[in-house]
């Protein structure tokens, strides 16, 4: 689909009139990145870009402070641990949804229960929750199966939807991302947040306008947000250089020196809490499209380690990423509880060792394998996969690379249709359980293995994850997390690559706060 930046004169004029009525000067914030959000259904697809955009319209009970990254009250005002398995939450009064209806305990109970349903991809955030009970109009109790030391962190990603709106619009169940079926909430939105959903043309344009009746006090001055997804990075950078957009979430690494030296522009950056890795199908008895028949090479740890040691990660971080990656052997970034220097250490790049591992496993002549990657989700993702394809060829593995846009890539891998795949995993809870439960726990219910699309399974790993879910001794709990991360290294359940270093490029007159989760805080954006 051809992507262009269309004039927003009429829209801006409307926003200006609305802003005048509110006593504000109209300020439009125009931004871009490579891909579009996959849906507006807040419990359908656990996608980092979508989650960040959803937070402009839908609010959670608590949310991370962008400067301290501590959970702070949003639609909740206070909470109390009544017992080890009962959290009482006091809800903010006087909050209105965008249609003027009042936010209440009924909506909070409904929203959390909705996140726990079968078609939700947000079960990992509801991990450990047994039930949610309305105490009164402004109070709920959240009961957990066992003590849950990271429940508050999980609640940062469970956004609130109007029960009446969902019932009226046949959207009580989240859209199932594994099917093409849609509900009303997929293309429409109605929350309590600082911005109101106005228009969404998938892969073309998203428009949000300031909520004049928002309960909170914004430090920012933006009255309208216009998002234009543009796959071609050269087009995104040209739009910034020409002034058509104010902000690029994922600038071209090779263009950063030019942006930094431009007096009208600026770059701010930092390490993201996201690790990029490869996953591998360890479930099928035979891999589709492989020349190996009757068995699956990826079930053999030696083969997985050979693929790992066949990757020259330093060349990738230096050339493909231009320094925007921190090579790692861990499945989580350094900011995440459970990380250690020991699990961070990689297996060495060694072509001869990789060839020997393959020969020992019975594949001295190598093999063919399907290899799938996104082409508009992570920094230079397609280029990195092309580089890895060439590296694997040196050890005798012929990876048949196919690349897809985000909107089709993620449903595809969740249907278990890739033999080897690229995935980036941020950690909104800043706790390794979030990654381990989603990526290394055997596929089950309640968020277990919800992105373990290689279907790795180890009873020892499952036991460690289950112990960590309910361990309240924080020192012991961290030790268990580190042990589980070390076990993933030993098994090579996945091949960790690097932690992303995220640069944001923007006009000089834009003020934003850089966050480790690579999302904008819509309450803080200023256009000066």
Query: What is the CA-based Rg, rounded?
Result: 23 Å
Count of helical segments?
17
Question: What is the CATH architecture assignment of the domain at 272-501?
Answer: Roll
Structural class by sheet pairing and helices: alpha+beta
Query: What is the CA–CA distance across the termini?
Result: 34 Å
- Classified in CATH, the superfamily of the domain at 272-501 is Dipeptide-binding Protein, Domain 3
Number of strands: 19
CATH class of the domain at 272-501: Alpha Beta
Q: Give unreliable regions as ranges.
A: 1-23
- CATH topology of the domain at 272-501: the name is Dipeptide-binding Protein, domain 3
Overall shape: globular
What's the average pLDDT?
A: 92
The main sheet comes to: 11 strands, mixed
The helical percent reads 25-40%
- What share of residues are in beta strands? 15-25%
Supply database-style keywords:
4-stranded antiparallel beta sheet, globular, single chain, 11-stranded mixed beta sheet, alpha+beta, 19 strands, 528 residues, Dipeptide-binding Protein, domain 3, 17 helices, Dipeptide-binding Protein, domain 1
Overview of the molecule:
The structure is a single chain. This protein has helices spanning 9-21, 48-54, 105-115, 151-155, 163-168, 184-187, 233-242, 256-260, 301-309, 313-320, 341-344, 351-360, 381-394, 406-414, 433-439, 459-470, 474-491, and strands spanning 28-32, 62-64, 71-73, 76-83, 86-91, 129-136, 139-144, 195-201, 205-210, 224-227, 247-248, 265-280, 325-327, 367-374, 397-404, 420-426, 494-507, 510-511, 526-527. It is globular, with a radius of gyration of 23 Å. The protein is built from 17 helices and 19 strands. By secondary structure, it is of the alpha+beta class. A hairpin with a 2-residue loop joins strand 4 and strand 5 (86-91). The strands form 4 sheets. Strands 1, 8, 9, 10, 11, 12, 13, 14, 15, 16 and 17 form an 11-stranded mixed beta sheet that branches.
